Amino acid sequence: MRILGIDPGLRVTGYGVVDVDPDSPGATPRIVEGGVLRIPEDLPLPARLHRLHEEIREVLDELEPEMVAVESVFTHPDRASTGVRMAHARGVLLLAAAQKGLKVAEHAPAQVKKSLTGDGSADKSRMQLAIAARCGLDAPPEPSDVADALAIALCAANRLEDPLSGTRAS
C-alpha cells in the first residue's frame, strides 16, 4: 500500500510517501519520495490556500497514494494562531484527498512519536533516527518537514498492522 504522509503548514508543507505491505507486518517500508511545498508568505490567505491545493493535487496525481495520513490539529497555549493556520492548511489538504476518493488517517503528534519510538514526547532528532532505522536509511531524513511527513506515513503504516491501535480513518 502506498501512503502519503503530510506535515501541514501554510508556509511549508512536508510530504513523504512510503510503500508498505500490510500483509507482511514488520517488513521494511520503502520510501518513494519526500519533499516540501513552499507557499509564498506574501500572498493573501485565499491565494495561499489555492496554491497549496494545486500543489498537493499535483503530488497526489504524480505519486498515486492509496491513503493519506495527516497530522491532527494541535495548539500550544502560547501559539494558538499557529494551530489556526495549520487548520486552514489541513482543510485544503483533506479536501484534495477527498476529491481523489482517498482514505484519510489523522494522527496526533504524540501518537506519531509513540508509534515510531515508543515515547510520545520524543524530540525531532530521535524521530529522524527512528525513521532511518525503520526504513533502512544510511542517514536520518532531512529537512525536518520531510522527516515529520515520513513519520506520519509510517505511523499510518503501523496502524494498518495493528487495527486496534486507535487511529481515526475516514
Structure description:
The protein has 170 residues and is of the alpha/beta class. It has one domain (2-169): 2-Layer Sandwich (Nucleotidyltransferase, domain 5), CATH 3.30.420. It is 46% helix and 21% strand. The protein is built from five helices and six strands. Strands 3-2-1-4-5-6 form a six-stranded mixed sheet. β4 (67-71), α2 and β5 (103-107) form a beta-alpha-beta unit. α1 (45-63) packs across α2, α3 (109-117) crosses α5 and α4 crosses α5. The longest helix is centred in the middle third of the chain and has 20 residues, at 80-99. The two termini are 16 Å apart.
Q: Taking strands numbered 1, 2, ... along the chain, how are they ordered across the largest sheet? A: 3-2-1-4-5-6
Proportion of helical residues: 40-55%
The structural domain count equals: 1
User: Termini separation (Å)?
Assistant: 16 Å
The third-level CATH topology is Nucleotidyltransferase, domain 5
The first-level CATH class name? Alpha Beta
Whole-angstrom Rg: 15 Å
> What CATH architecture label applies?
2-Layer Sandwich
Instruction: Summarize the biggest pleated sheet.
Output: 6 strands, mixed
- H/E element string? EEEHEHEHHHE
Average pLDDT, all residues: 88
Please indicate the percent range of residues in DSSP E strands (runs of 2 or more): 15-25%
The CATH superfamily bears the name: Ribonuclease H-like superfamily/Ribonuclease H
Number of strands: 6
Number of helical runs? Answer: 5
Shape: globular
